[in-house]
Structures are given as C-alpha cells and as structure tokens.
C-alpha cells in the first residue's frame, strides 16, 4: 500500500511538474487526478512520504551550501560548477524550479489535509507541521541563494495571474518563513523527537533560529529581539533529549545513524538512494591514482567504479583551520600518501559510506540539524549581543572544542575577534555539512569578514552574492526582474 502511495506521488508530480509556460514550470493538477486522491488519511501519509523523497533529492548537492564557499577546491577530475568559480550570468544562472516543485507539494498537503478525517487528530497536526516546516526551509534556502523570490502559497491547479508571480522582497519572504515556522511549532503535538529522519518541533526550532540569524545579519533587521528569540529557540532544542556524542567521527558513521546528537537527518539507503553528495569529494579507482604505491590506500573511502568522482577536494583554507591537536582533522579529510611520502590527492573522510561486496556506496544520512551546530549558532548569536554575552559565546563553543581536543578558547575577548573564531570553529565542526556559504554570508554582513577578500574565488571580482535567474525564466514570465548586478 505504501509503495502505491509513492507511485501516486510520482504520477502527480509528473502531472504537475512538467514543462509549461508558467514561471514555476508547474502544470496544473487535472480534475480527474484530484477526484481520485485526497480521500483518506493514507493518501495524506503517502503524499508526505513522497515529499520526504523529493526533499532528499533537493538536498543532496553541494551547490547551495558549499560550492560558493571556501572549503573546497577543484579536485583531480574537476568539472567544478560555475557557482564555485563565481562566474555567473543570466545565461549561466541557477534554476529555482526544484524548490518550487517542493513548495508546490507542501502547498498540496496544506490545502487538502485539513479536510480529511484522521483516526488521531494529532497525526494530522503532525503532518501539517512537517509540511509548513518544509515550506519554510525551502523559502529560506531560496532567499539565501537568490534574495528576492516569488512567494507562492497555493498549489498550481489552474493557470491564472498567480502562475506568473513577481519576486517578493526578501523581507517579505522572511516574514512568510517565520509565519510558517511559528505555525509548525504550534501544530506539533509533542516537544520531543519521535523519529530523527522526520521533521520534529526541535527541528522547526532550529529552522526558526537559522532564519532569525539571517534576518538579523544579512537582512539587517538590527533588532536584538531577533537574537534573543533565536537563542531561546536553540536553548529549547538543547533540552529536547539530544546529547553530544563522545567522538566526533562517530556522529557520521553509518553504523550510528540517528545517534544522540542528531536532531534531523535525511534518510539514505543503498538501492533506494545510493549516494549522497559527498561522492563528489571522494576518489574513484577508475581515475588511475589509487595504485599499489599508495601506502594508505585501504584507509581512503574510495570506490572501484565511477560512483565517486573527485570533482572537488578539501581546500588548503579548510585544512589550515585545524591545529595539530584537533582530532576532527582526520575525520574531515585524508591525504593519499605514496611510498615517497608525497601527497597524491586529498579526499573527504567525513562521510565514508559503506564498503559492500560489490563497491562502496555513500549511504550516510544527510545531517540537516545536530546539537553541535546548535551550540555554535547559539555562540554566534550571543556574540552579536556583545558585552558580557561575548564570554557566554566563548562558553557555548566549549563543547565542540573540548571534544575536538583543543580545549577552551583563550584568545582575545574583542567582539570581532571572537566572531571570527566562531566562524572558524563552525568551519571545522560543520565542514561539508552544507552550512558554509550561509555562514560566510552572515559573517560578511555582520562585519566579521569581507567576503570579497576572504573567499579565494571572489578575490578581484564583483560578482553579486545572490544567484542570477535564467534568461529563459524571464522570457517565460515578464513579471520577473533579474537579480541586481546581472
């Protein structure tokens, strides 16, 4: 029965997400399709399962969280994105259709689930809460990447003027994000986490804090209430039953999925969705570099086939963040060393996947939120408050630093210096977890760094910090305006 629901989701997606003249390129759902769906509780649950599958595909990429940052350089095979090179224009812009497909499915649940009877009303509330959180998360990523974006709150079921929406101001998008998150938080019937592969109230609280941090720094709200509200949300998460793992590497071990530190992670399983995004920072034996001369070959998370593709490598900047005492370094990256002691290439070592009999598959769950990040975001927000809160920010960093073996921060108490140390600590702790570009954007707008002199691929360039939209999108929808600077 559940498989039938997955298939139905795919059929409805095919009906609704095909090519058309709408800017969102979403065809309306046919009346025949709708007449045979949204009849029962199982219909809603099946559609929600499809939404999680949809989100997994949308999330498993370095494009939005890492490509434009400083943690990666071109790998042995290369073929890096234009985003990584910061060489974008309206011909090589980014298509936001995937996000609006996801939002469309959220809108379907939000519209139709309330009218369906459930055996347990709390089950309906929980599903709606997840849909609202998914929608808020999609809009947060959209505004982080494009700035001003269209707000679409209804599913595309007929062609009308709403099919060709203009871009809303980023401030309006943030208002909608926070409204959706608050609705979700109120809807969740429990305060704890029932399943770490599902969105929960603590995950929605993490999203709330993440959004408020962006609002305060990048959108320049200058409202200290945004900081205190975000800190309160994070402190509530700290009390939800999660705890720090003793060993950093164990957080990401496939054998420890949904461990004590995880708040929300995206489920991956071999033969269902074989490889998460870290395959692009890993080496394939097919590239010809994993010879018998590599003395630590069996320590490297490589594949025999082209499952892995060394498009990117951990950057010198990232590697320089780790001191000799930092035990996270060996979990973040690994150098392939030949018999002469020379480094042949560098691979990620954080998401090693599983070595099966036929090959290695990168079947790690995709970590969206975990307690280590919560503590470091709290540190960042406390530091922005200034005064005595700077020491509280330093204290909030202690958990991750202590586990890493580098101990408490003992440097300057100057607010800007501590802000930079928190940015560096997030770089070490959260490397390759799709957080770096938003982190750098907040740091830039908070005055911690000048992003144009800090990111190597931005030095000497004036590339706007938001993505352009494709020319063809504007051709299809004359109500859209190009991102400033393109």
Automatic annotation (TrEMBL):
<dbReference type="InterPro" id="IPR033985">
    <property type="entry name" value="SusD-like_N"/>
</dbReference>
<feature type="domain" description="RagB/SusD">
    <location>
        <begin position="347"/>
        <end position="486"/>
    </location>
</feature>
<dbReference type="Pfam" id="PF14322">
    <property type="entry name" value="SusD-like_3"/>
</dbReference>
<dbReference type="GO" id="GO:0009279">
    <property type="term" value="C:cell outer membrane"/>
</dbReference>
<dbReference type="InterPro" id="IPR012944">
    <property type="entry name" value="SusD_RagB_dom"/>
</dbReference>
<dbReference type="InterPro" id="IPR011990">
    <property type="entry name" value="TPR-like_helical_dom_sf"/>
</dbReference>
<comment type="similarity">
    <text>Belongs to the SusD family.</text>
</comment>
<protein>
    <submittedName>
        <fullName>RagB/SusD family nutrient uptake outer membrane protein</fullName>
    </submittedName>
</protein>
<dbReference type="Pfam" id="PF07980">
    <property type="entry name" value="SusD_RagB"/>
</dbReference>
<keyword id="KW-0732">Signal</keyword>
<feature type="domain" description="SusD-like N-terminal">
    <location>
        <begin position="39"/>
        <end position="206"/>
    </location>
</feature>
<keyword id="KW-0472">Membrane</keyword>
<keyword id="KW-0998">Cell outer membrane</keyword>
């Amino acid at each position: 029965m559940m498989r039938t629901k997955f298939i139905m989701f795919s059929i409805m997606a095919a009906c609704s997400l095909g090519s058309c003249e709408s800017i969102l390129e979403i065809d309306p759902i046919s009346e025949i399709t709708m007449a045979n769906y949204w009849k029962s509780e199982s219909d809603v649950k099946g559609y929600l399962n499809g939404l999680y599958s949809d989100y997994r595909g949308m999330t498993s990429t370095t494009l939005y969280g890492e490509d434009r940052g400083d943690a990666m350089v071109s790998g042995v095979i290369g073929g890096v994105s234009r985003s990584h090179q910061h060489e974008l224009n309206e011909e090589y812009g980014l298509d936001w259709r995937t996000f609006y497909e996801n939002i469309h499915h959220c809108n379907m649940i939000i519209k139709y689930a309330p009218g369906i009877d459930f055996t347990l009303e709390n089950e309906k509330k929980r599903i709606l809460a997840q849909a609202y959180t998914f929608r808020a998360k999609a809009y947060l990523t959209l505004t982080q990447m494009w700035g001003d974006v269209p707000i679409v709150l209804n599913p595309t079921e007929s062609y009308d003027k709403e099919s060709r929406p203009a871009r809303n101001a980023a401030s309006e998008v943030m208002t909608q994000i926070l409204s959706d998150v608050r609705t979700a938080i109120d809807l969740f019937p429990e305060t704890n986490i029932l399943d770490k592969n599902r969105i929960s109230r603590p995950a929605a609280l993490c999203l709330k804090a993440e959004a408020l941090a962006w609002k305060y720094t990048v959108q320049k709200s200058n409202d200290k209430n945004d900081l205190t509200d975000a800190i309160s949300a994070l402190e509530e998460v700290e009390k939800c039953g999660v705890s720090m793992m003793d060993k950093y590497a164990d957080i990401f071990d496939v054998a420890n999925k949904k461990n004590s530190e995880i708040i929300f992670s995206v489920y991956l399983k071999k033969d269902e969705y074989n490889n998460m995004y870290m395959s692009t920072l890993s080496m394939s034996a097919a590239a010809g570099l994993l010879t018998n001369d590599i003395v630590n070959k069996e320590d490297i998370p490589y594949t025999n086939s082209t499952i892995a593709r060394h498009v990117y490598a951990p950057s010198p900047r990232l590697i320089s963040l780790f001191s000799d005492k930092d035990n996270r370094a060996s979990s973040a990256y690994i150098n392939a060393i030949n018999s002469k002691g020379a480094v042949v290439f560098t691979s990620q070592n954080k998401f090693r996947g599983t070595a099966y009999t036929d090959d290695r598959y990168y079947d790690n769950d995709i970590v969206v939120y975990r307690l280590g990040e919560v503590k470091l975001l709290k540190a960042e927000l406390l530091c922005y408050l200034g005064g005595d809160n700077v020491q509280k920010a330093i204290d909030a960093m202690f958990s991750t630093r202590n586990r890493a073996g580098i101990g408490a921060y003992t440097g300057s108490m100057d607010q800007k210096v501590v802000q930079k140390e928190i940015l560096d600590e997030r770089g070490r702790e959260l490397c390759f977890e799709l957080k770096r570009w938003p982190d750098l954007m907040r740091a830039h707008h908070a005055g911690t760094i000048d992003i144009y002199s800090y990111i190597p691929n931005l030095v000497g360039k004036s590339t706007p910090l938001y993505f352009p939209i494709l020319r063809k999108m504007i051709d299809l929808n004359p109500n859209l305006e190009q991102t400033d600077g393109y």
